[in-house]
Design a protein that fits this description.
Low-confidence stretches: 1-39, 41-50, 303-325
Order of helices and strands: HEEEEEEEEEEEEEEEEEE
Mean pLDDT: 82
Radius of gyration: 19 Å
Number of helices: 1
Number of domains: 1
């Protein structure tokens, strides 16, 4: 194993053991195989419910391994969180948490694409504790996916049964994050590595340096560059003003926040002092990024039990943007 890989592996182990899991946590694991054609069918569509308090232990021990083999970082996990959760089944979400069988890989030297890549029907990435980041819902205006108006899951207000960890459960029992995984971000004075995106770039919590080019400057709560569109929705769309009920209520406005259209930026981090592109899971929309900067690994594609092993990815139109970069 060369020095570069050793340094990267040491960064992984250091971040996991000292900033997340603590000594003695078992490490093992498991692949996203789902026969669900949509991410969240069956959820109660009452959009604003009180968050479910996180006081229920997961149904088993969280198990995850992250290893570098060759040109890839391999992540195997059982999908169970290493922290308490809300009540599932519960109001807004009728699904119980169940053990999963995840086997993912991401490149250790990801490359940026010329243009951001939209995605849907697959997770964005995986947290260091083996829980997926999966931002999209399967709820649409008039229950019609062809309407083009997808209901936005607001992790800050408990929509769709989301708990205080900003997570809820899919019909197959997969617990997954829709926003900042609160138990993984306990220090607001430093950048915190919280996971890996499907394209291999690192994912950080919402706190970062005010100056992206510095590693010893002021730490601030990073803001996305997505804004609510002004005015009312057009004729033929859900009636009323753009109020955040739907993903399409937002647009990317370059320079209005700290991050680019992929909810990321380039700069040094504690794990990558020489600099890297990295994503940020923010407290404001889009919460979990909705565009890839690099090429996601096929291991993150959702697969039906009887479907082809690598179903072509169906890109979704993202929120409108002005000056996406």
């Amino acid at each position: 194993m060369n020095d570069k890989i050793i340094r990267t592996l040491n960064a992984d182990v250091f971040s996991m053991t000292h900033h997340l899991f603590g000594a003695g946590m078992a490490l093992t694991c498991l692949a996203l195989i789902s026969n669900q054609s949509a991410a969240h069918p069956g959820h109660n569509q009452n959009p604003q419910r009180a968050m479910s308090q996180t006081e229920v232990p997961p149904p088993g021990e969280s198990k995850v391994t992250i290893q570098i083999r060759g040109d890839y970082r391999h992540i195997d996990a059982n999908g169970l969180p290493n922290h308490d959760t809300g009540h599932f089944p519960g109001p807004g979400n009728p699904n119980a948490i169940a053990t999963q069988n995840y086997h993912f890989r991401v490149p250790i030297t990801p490359e940026a694409r010329d243009k951001p890549l939209p995605y849907e029907r697959q997770p964005f990435g995986i947290a260091l504790n083996g829980v997926l980041f999966d931002p999209f819902t399967a709820e649409f205006w008039k229950k019609d996916p062809n309407s083009g108006w997808r209901e936005a899951a607001d992790p800050n207000h408990g929509s769709l049964g989301i708990d205080a960890n900003h997570a809820h459960v899919q019909p197959n029992g997969a617990y997954h994050y829709h926003g900042v995984p609160v138990p993984l971000v306990t220090d607001t004075t430093r950048m915190t590595l919280i996971g890996w995106a499907a394209d291999g770039f690192p994912i950080y919590g919402p706190y970062g340096h005010k100056d992206a080019d510095r590693t010893n400057g002021e730490i601030v709560l990073l803001q996305s560059s997505y804004q609510l569109r002004p005015g009312d929705r057009p004729v033929g769309a859900p009636p009323g003003a753009y109020d955040g009920t739907y993903d399409q209520d937002y647009e990317y406005v370059a320079g209005s926040g700290d991050l680019d259209a992929c909810n990321g930026r380039t700069g040094p981090t504690p794990e990558f002092p020489e600099g890297t592109y990295y994503y940020v899971v923010t407290n404001d929309y889009p919460y979990v990024p909705r565009l890839f900067r690099g090429e996601p690994d096929p291991s993150f594609d959702l697969r039906g039990h009887n479907g082809p092993p690598n179903r072509p990815r169906r890109n979704r139109p993202g929120p409108p943007n002005r000056g996406a970069r």
